[in-house]
Amino acid sequence: MRISAEYRPGSLTKMLDVIEGEIADDVTQIMREETRDLTMDYRQQVRDAGMGNRLANTWRAEVYPKGGRSLNPAGYIWSNAPAIIDAFARGAHIRPVNGAKWLWIPTRNVPARRRGGTYASSVKRSNGTRMSPEEVEMHFNAELQVVIEGSKGSAFIDVVSGLSGGYRRATPGRTQGRRGMAPRKQKAVLMFNLVRGVRMPRLFDLDGPAQKRAANVARRIAAKWG
Strand pairing partners for 61? Predict the structure, then answer.
């Protein structure tokens, strides 16, 4: 007895194409899920460090090919605040640049920047951050008084207390009293702490979670098609 199978040209190719497509679907889906979960891992690290949702949500992710499938998909994750993330991932030592001797660390007494204003156009402005030393001097129309003690220093400025909080310029009208208002005493208020450098704590682990998710991709693919 002879047993024969009918061979139809293209049938094997079609079958292999179907299998390849199914594998590509699974591999791409696994990559999307693990890339998404790695992004969540990084965001949670930021929250656990007490740095808030705003910085956490700077983590973004994309899987290539976009909207398609591939046997070799790639997941790409990045932060829109790379300098901050890198500093806390490496535990960087921040030092003054451009020949400066000190880092000026603002205290809570330094006013926040606002949009607009009349500061010199050469001063870079950023809404919500603290004023620079130059901006503080322009804001209060007074010079900072710097006191150096060894490897640290302090910078004060003469101001008066604001009626609704904060500090105001020590103008003659405010210090002497005006329009029936009581005089306000001028005082030196700490605006900046000066240090030679700052060691940033290492708060983020980028490699560990990435290696874990990469291992998950390999394990899940092997479990499905191994």
Answer: 77
Residue 114 token pair: 């606002």
Q: Does the global pTM surpass 0.70? A: no
Token pair 């046997």 in the structure block, residue? 71
Segment 73-112, tens digit of pLDDT: 999 999 999 999 999 999 988 888 877 889 999 999 999 8
Contact (Cβ atoms closer than 8 angstroms) between residue 200 and residue 107 = no
SS3 of the chain: the string is: CCCCCCCCCCHHHHHHHHHHHHHHHHHHHHHHHHHHHHHHHHHHHHHHCCCHHHHHCCEEEEEECCCCCCCCCEEEEEECCHHHHHHHHHCCEECCCCCCCCEEEECCCCCECCCCCCCCCCCCCCCCCECCHHHHHHHHCCCCEEEEECCEEEEEEEEEECCCCCEEECCHHHHHCCCCCCCCCCEEEEEEEEECCEECCCCCCCHHHHHHHHHHHHHHHHHHHC
194 touches 106 (CB < 8 A): no
Q: Of 98, 165, 108, 148, whose CA–CA distance to 131 is shortest?
A: 108
